[in-house]
Specification:
This protein is mainly β. It has three domains: 8-164 and 305-328, no CATH class; 178-301 and 341-386, no CATH class; 408-568, 6 Propeller (Neuraminidase), CATH 2.120.10.
Amino acid sequence: MSLSSLTIRPRELTVGELGPLRMAGELPPASGYTYAVELGVEGANGHVRFEADAGSEARVGPVILHIDNFLGFAVGEGVPVGAYERDAGRWVAESNGLVVGLVGEVEGLAELDFDGDGAPESEEVLAAWAVTEFELRQLASQREPGDTFWRVPTSHFSLIDCNWPLAFPTDAIDALLAFLGLDAFTEDTCYNGSEIRLERQVLAEHMDIPGTPFSLTYSSDRQVGYEANRTVRVQVTPDSIPSSMRQVHVELLIAGRRVRRTYPAAPSLIFEYAWDGTDVYGRRFRGAMPYEIRVGYGYQGTYASSAIASRDPFPTEGGGWFGFPGTSRNDRTLTREEVIRWRSERRFLSYDDARREGLLGLTLDVHHRYEPTSQTLLRGDGGRARARAMPLVIDRVAGGGSSTSPDVPARSFRLQSPTGLTVGDDGQVYVATNDSRIWRIDRDGILHHFAGNGDNATSGDGGLAVDAGIANPEHLAWGPDGSLYIGCVSEAASDECARIRRVRPDGVIETVAGNGTNARRMGDGLRAVDAPLEEPRLLAFGDDGTLYFVDGALYLRAVGTDGVLRTLNPSRRSSDDGTLLASADLGSIGGLAYDARDGSLYVGSNRRGGTIYRVTPDGFLRRYAGGNGAP
């Protein structure tokens, strides 16, 4: 649809106590609640993008938004900008904005400072940022010298979100979850006659049935009035807490019911909740019920500074830092909302009512009931037994056979030196081998050819994966889009193999990162497919679809949902606790994993004799294990 004029109705969402609830979706873990506006166009539904008419040579540039710098960010700082794709249910980073200062006016034109030095920028700099004379006149008529504002480009009218990265106080700690009391499914052994189990405070009576070899048992832990098995009791704060902690939040989700509690920060806090055996609709259950408990410590956070956008004005597609951790702390600017560091755990409660056996609350000693949810056998004599995992046994799944043709049992196939392995969401196993092929083992144990024609070269993008050349496939990961992602490493600086490719659900292969040029830490801000890579290894996916990987051995990089490449630790200055990821020296990285529970990244490093680091959602380094200097 072509329009000669538009009527825009802006609606700020981040206003008042209900502001966070108006957000289109849950923010990425690293983003702090800052500012969002819905730009509605009368007569339009959804996104309205700016495009030139077919055949037109007119350049369609971004529309510029000017937003008051109401939080006082420094001039020259980048403004992370994102948009929410409602159809896909995800945030997408867009081109960064910039905090700009108006430093003067000459002949009705505003003079602008883009780098914080207080001096007006040259015509060349203004041209690089696509600043027009019309914009300068508008600013001169609407603002005064000394004003600062956010200059935000957008190519569409819909939800525009400007959210800086957040940072926790330096003394912030992770939440505690210390469960008190015995597990509801602790094993018991019963004896004849009457007994009292002191630890669980259970009374049991055994009564022989005359003339039979059977007996009846009364056990108080299987009666409606017994609460221990259906009660959560947790210490949620340690005996000493940091001074910066403000509140403690506890959330418990069970049977569709959500329980929320908020406490003023205090040491040794105890949370207790007794489940009544019903779900959110009032239906009563018997047996084990899984629950999730989350504990969060609330702090007054600060915004972190994001990567300066002025190095690359208006990238052609995306290139912003929305949703990524900050590059430096900014303790001057407080967050608009409390920041919370969460921890969660899943366990079981049990609600029992032996009256359902039809024996007035008694159980028959030879009549047992298995509880599959908790893998517990409830014996009729009042005892209980937990299922235990069998001892770990190494079993051959694939390879070791003589067949060289696919579509045979995997154990009878001769695999040639497996180099990569992953399991898909569908339960199938994918194996890369050093003959430049990838195999799929289905759930019946049958091996199939999945990708690669055996040529150790990069070819076939846009065609079927089985017909494509795949060079050095050594690292595999299953993506949230149902694709298999392949890290292809270079064996020499000139072999043009360093790429990340994917096989889509329809069997088509394509490159998602790497242009074939082998180079160290180049291409930040470019579309990932146009950027050079060194050696993409150790692939991992975030909840939002961001692809994390190690490039070479030293750098942690990411491809966002906008398809743009970023280096997350470009400076490499320190490996101390509390270091921002942007400045983290992770040494030689040998492992990478993403924790979907809270958005943390875990990194295996050779630093300090071998260390596992946790990168918190706000982008700070925490030593998780090792690091004592021993090999």
